[in-house]
Amino acid sequence: MNSDSNAKKTQTDKNRNFNQSTHHALDGIITAFKEEANLRRDFVIAMVVLVAGYFARLHYLDWLFLILAIFMVLLAEFWNTVMEHFVDLLVDRQFHPLAKKIKDISAGSVLIGACLAVIIGCVVFGHAVLYYF
Ligand SMILES: Nc1ncnc2c1ncn2[C@@H]1O[C@H](COP(=O)(O)OP(=O)(O)OP(=O)(O)O)[C@@H](O)[C@H]1O
């Protein structure tokens, strides 16, 4: 293994260019999907919703709301994952009431996002069903 690839593995300085930044960002997305079952479940649900939207022949505004809802839930899951790792890094898996508070509030934000997504889904598909039948 040459010194350049070693440097890449242990990099702690700033990214040098857009390609390097994008590469690390994609690494983050892949790691999150590999390690977080909740994220994979949300992704599968999102795919099912998109296929259902295709068959329901939604209006473009409905698509906009659905896509916003999907990205909102995925972003909330990503930030919840960041919080969990950050807290674990700080307390090294020791029990701490503040660690519990941070993780629970962070999980609560995902739940709120998911509730909003369900409401948006019900309005969009409810309207489509009423319109077509
Ligand atoms: N260091 C800690 N101190 C106190 N409570 C903790 C700590 N770590 C986790 N917990 C509690 O355990 C729960 C599960 O923590 P964990 O880090 O395993 O999250 P998770 O199971 O990945 O959560 P999610 O389902 O949101 O992905 C947290 O919601 C929190 O209530």
Structure description:
The chain is an all-alpha fold and 133 residues long. The chain has one domain (37-132): Orthogonal Bundle (Helix Hairpins), CATH 1.10.287. It contains five helices and no strands. It binds adenosine-5'-triphosphate (ATP). Adenosine-5'-triphosphate binds next to helix 4 and helix 5. It is an enzyme of class 2 (transferase). It is a multi-pass membrane protein.
A few lines on this structure:
Helices cover 84% and strands 0% of the residues. With 133 residues, the chain is mainly alpha-helical. The protein has a single domain, classed as Helix Hairpins (Orthogonal Bundle), CATH 1.10.287.3610.
Write the topology of this structure.
Layout: H1 3-9, H2 18-35, H3 37-55, H4 60-91, H5 97-132
Helix pairs in contact: 3-4, 4-5
What are the secondary-structure elements, in order, as H or E? Answer: HHHHH
CATH class: Mainly Alpha
The helicity comes to over 70%
Fill in the CATH topology: Helix Hairpins
Binding site for a divalent metal cation: 36, 84
Family: Belongs to the bacterial diacylglycerol kinase family.
Enzyme class: transferase
Binding site for ATP: 16, 36, 84, 103-104
